[in-house]
Amino acid sequence: MANKSKIILGIDPGTLVMGYGLIQVQGKNASLIKMDVLKLSNRKDHYERLQLIHSCINELILLHKPDCCAIEAPFFGKNVQSMLKLGRAQGVAIATAMQAGLTVAEYSPKKVKQSITGNGNADKEQVWQMLQRILTFSERPDYLDATDALAVAVCHHFQESSPLAGLPKAKGWEQFLQQHPHRIVSK
Asked: Per its UniProt record, what SUPFAM superfamilies does this chain match (predicted)?
């Protein structure tokens, strides 16, 4: 039986630079379709930037027809105003994807880095270098926000292809043992 092809859109939300990456998954193998950034002028009104984010994501969806969307969760910093703006950008991205009928998954920056490099504290350079190996590409983008978005898409692929994907999550040992009686070994 042939493996169905799937396209994943990854987004690294930002109010000045929004990264995006698209991968195609065939079975367990992923390949790069596109990665880039949307650069937003800080001279533009914040609401105008949100509209541009919406338009860009909508255009990517219409052009590449992804099956799902993965987005990086905001990193919680100390500047509340920046966090609010970033949350709005993320909300617009999520709403645009959902309006197009895509499922959306959200991953923390630490989870993405852990998934790609094995180290949740990896820097952007390490993530980019590992993605080059995983997806076999050589170009280095001008903005590593593009590779961050690509990493979110690859992280989603890894999560979906995990042997544990789709299993209900246990809420404690008792529930885990009830769901997995074959894991109990008597001595």
From this structure: Ribonuclease H-like (SSF53098)
